Description:
The protein is of the alpha+beta class.
Amino acid sequence: MAFVTEAVFRDDSYLRETEAKVVAVNDRGGIILDRTIFYATSGGQPGDTGSLVRSDGGRIAVAATVTGETKDEIIHVPALEQPVPSVGETIQLAIDWPRRHLLMRMHAACHLLTVVCPYPITGASVSEDDSRVDFDIPDAGFTKEEVTARLMELVRADYPIYTRWISDDELGANPTLVKSKNVRPPSGTGKIRLVCIGDNASVDSQPCGGTHVASTAEIGDIHIGKIEKKGRENRRFRIRFGAMPAN
Ligand SMILES: [Zn+2]
């Protein structure tokens, strides 16, 4: 039987600490809580790491967070040789916030890249220092300098980034919201989470379950490190933090 974990990070991606109850420990030692601030790996964004602190002060290091039998079941994977909590126990959660904030900045930067480069997305992967987005384009003539300049215009404009829930029907009526070529947002649950950029989504909106910073300015300096050719009709853009290195 799959558990349903309340995914607190979906409504508040800035919550670094909270309290929860242990509802199960699975046969591989994975810890399932009633609610969590730990993002579980999905959609190209890696899951959170951090710690669970027991009432006796004992600390359980969380090495990874993944989904279980269903997307709604979130499993906290402990590092090796950690204490095992009891079912029903109340526990204090703390995510590795500096790492998560880097991932939120990078993830938001990937959204901006899809605005600058409005082509079908075939893949994406977010990490703390280097992210990539793959586009289905033969050769759009982009240079990394030009794409970087346009990304930084969006960053400096300090647009708000926020989420909004829409119905399956609303999404069906607006098929251009979906930018992924092969991945469809999960439908059938009745509602879809849209990530919007700009007042009234003037810059962008697309279905996404990840965590993002609250404004484009918070992304800070980023640049395109590389544009790689990955087949005849595929280009991989690599985003990195910091200003574009001179040379
Ligand atoms: Zn996203």
